[in-house]
Prior knowledge:
By secondary structure, the chain is of the alpha+beta class. The chain has 3 helices and 5 strands, in the order E-E-E-H-E-H-H-E. The relative contact order is 0.25.
Amino acid sequence: MKINTLDNLNGRRDVFEFMQGDFKSEHWHESSIYLTTEAFDFLHLFIEEVLPDFNYFGPNSVNQEQWNQIAFNACSLNNTADIQFLRFFNRIDYWVKENFKEHTCFSICGP
């Protein structure tokens, strides 16, 4: 499971963009991270538990309290059985925590 940046997307557009702050009707930010549909599917279950109205095609706003619940669910349900998932999730969690140093939310936009 790979987390992409704008530089390594290689023209691929069928990705979920995690962007800093509120969605402002613009895509493809340098500061965003990008997940393929396959990679996002690992998170989707945990996101929908916390955000039942999640719009798969976007945009969705996630605040810190919601993310903390998503993180708790993802890590507790997986225990440490799936090391690959936990490494993947921890890289996303790091980006999210860096985002919350400057923003009250982040946005997820679907493909």
